[in-house]
Write a structure and sequence with these properties.
With 160 residues, the protein is an alpha+beta fold. It has five helices and six strands; from the N terminus they run αααβαββαβββ. The strands form two sheets. A four-stranded antiparallel sheet has the order 2-3-1-4. A two-stranded antiparallel sheet has the order 5-6.
């Protein structure tokens, strides 16, 4: 692993919980100077330990009432697969794409306004992106989110 110490790991844990925490609050929490925290965060960004910053947004505010996990079973190793997955990842409603082990090699996490939009997305996957390389898919609808991206979701903000 790259050259990070226990303090760097504590910074990463705190940032994963709250990406908006200030350097001042981090310095108080970890007992370091603000300058030291800033230098360490800069280093962690350069190393790629911090890949970016984002907000956990309640999907209903974007009129997205359906969140799904879509597993894809591909027929063969397609040399274009990586490029195709990158293109799918550019779609606004796609939250994550994961290569994985098992009979389904790819999992997509995405939000949709309704069931019709989900069906349309599945057609898009099979007709535009994956064409003859897609054997089948399996869709799971998420009913409730308890923890997301390392953040515990409070009862009042859970989707219903």
């Amino acid at each position: 692993m790259v050259d990070i110490d226990e303090i760097d790991k504590k910074i990463l844990v705190e940032l994963r919980k709250n990406g908006r925490i200030t350097f001042t609050d981090l310095s108080k929490k970890l007992g370091l100077s603000v300058a030291s925290i800033k230098n360490r965060v800069d280093k962690l960004e350069r190393l790629g330990a911090i890949k970016g910053y984002s907000a956990l947004v309640e999907p209903a505010f974007l009129e997205e009432y359906l969140q799904a996990l879509i597993e894809l079973e591909l027929l063969a190793d397609d040399p274009r697969a990586e490029m195709v997955l990158q293109e799918i990842g550019k779609l606004e409603n796609v939250l994550g794409i994961y290569k994985k082990t098992g009979e389904f090699q790819v999992m997509i996490r995405a939000n949709f306004k309704n069931m019709e939009e989900l069906k349309s997305f599945l057609r898009l996957l099979s007709q535009r992106y994956l064409r003859k390389n897609l054997r089948r898919w399996r869709v799971t609808i998420i009913l409730d989110v308890i923890k997301d991206n390392g953040v515990q979701i409070s009862k009042g903000s859970q989707r219903r």
